Amino acid sequence: MAGELGVLNALDVAKTQWYHFTAIVIAGMGFFTDAYDLFCISLVTKLLGRLYYTEPGAPKPGSLPPRVQASVTGVALCGTLAGQLFFGWLGDKMGRKRVYGLTLILMVVCSLASGLSFGSTPEGVMASLCFFRFWLGFGIGGDYPLSATIMSEYANKKTRGAFIAAVFAMQGFGILAGGVVALIVSYAYDQKYKLPSYEQNPEASLDPAFDYVWRIVLMFGAVPAALTYYWRMKMPETARYTALVAKNAKQAAADMSKVLQVELEAEEEKVKKLTENESNKYGLFTKEFVKRHGLHLLGTTTTWFLLDIAFYSQNLFQKDIFSAIGWIPPAKEMNAIHEVYKIARAQTLIALCSTVPGYWFTVALIDYMGRFAIQLLGFFFMTVFMFALAIPYDHWSEKENRIGFVVMYSFTFFFANFGPNSTTFVVPAEIFPARLRSTCHGISAAAGKAGAIVGAFGFLYAAQSKDPSKTDAGYPTGIGIKNSLIMLGVINFIGMLFTLLVPESKGKSLEELSGENGENDAEHAVSARTVPV
């Protein structure tokens, strides 16, 4: 490795140290907040329907009209997509660290603001909630490319996969925290207001004080983000950005000397030579980029897109699936607060038993099995379990088979997280050159969010029953849950095929993968594992 910089080599071969763990916690708390904010909305949408859309004397409590439901659940995802592209680009232009604090401030302010949504009509409240959730999503979007890039540039090459996956695994705790906060708040309110079910007394089953419940749940998302702001600001800029993009060898050596607690010399000549090398100058929209990384970018974007269609439709519509199999009783048999409690309990159980363990299996095994194997296996098992749920769907909907259904459903979650949900986040942070790394990660993540939007909006309509008398109020008939699950199985199978475009990055340095170590024939390094499809 004649061209390798000493400071980058020092990071690559460093033993796992305290600063690795602080970096995981600082970047990971951002992800904890992201997941909390994105997924906590699904815990309170039924409550919003009761509070703002209940008609006096109706046989069933109110629910959000289709367009409002789609907007409230989906608007944050649209913001996230925009944020990923914008902050990904900005992270390569201004530096990872400078943009990092900005995304956090946006998240804190918008979390609080979305809990303070106001309006004199139901539409007004929903519109202001959607406005703040869009900008909350915008801040969350910035966290994806920046956290992944910062972690991959700080890590050593032996355990880099586990470190980036650990940052992402905090998402699991965020989803869990959402459920726990909703459980605590709803339990406290239930103890104070002992109310009858909607069936027994429609008027008395809802108290105006319940309007605080969803606001408390949404606003709590600001707490973990605010706690990590100080530490984020103290982190130095990554050496790879300072040396390879900002071309400041002195600063890179000084920063990393502090972090690694060793003396490092500033190799100004080497930095100059590397950054002036023609093979390290091509931009994103060039033939050279397409030749070297075109297929990789296609692989990372398509796999993330396909995965998120399945992952988000599963996550955001858990409660509908639970109601369909009878885990959650019909709405009229509960009062407003019991409904929140039961939805939160079901979601917390799934998170605890399958979502969280899946993430940590990836952390433990990614540097042994490699990214490619985990992603392929994950897509394969997701396909298998989706079909196993869908084809005998009538069998699963019978009362005595419901536990089996939930177990199978949990397995699809487990293999999403011990599989493509983690690896699609890790790989784009490793295989692109430093000056485009954050942008390419942002593009890949935005493709994922486009898939999430398809999943969230599409599944909302598709999963409606074929029988007009069984659809939710205001929805057209759909293809039913059974056919929706078959579709998701097919999508996972296609994801398996596109995984073949993604290179294996296990155990190689970032410069070796992106061809930035001054060797002109970088192609051999890059096409580490590209299988022709």
UniProtKB/TrEMBL annotation:
Region of interest: Disordered: 511-533
Protein name per UniProt: Putative inorganic phosphate transporter 1-7 isoform A
Keywords (A to Z) from UniProt: Membrane, Phosphate transport, Symport, Transmembrane, Transmembrane helix, Transport
UniProt-listed GO biological process terms: arbuscular mycorrhizal association; cellular response to nutrient levels; phosphate ion transport; response to symbiotic fungus
Gene source species: Glycine soja
Gene Ontology CC annotations of this record: membrane
Gene Ontology MF: a single term: phosphate transmembrane transporter activity
Localization annotation: Membrane
Membership in a protein family: Belongs to the major facilitator superfamily. Phosphate:H(+) symporter (TC 2.A.1.9) family.
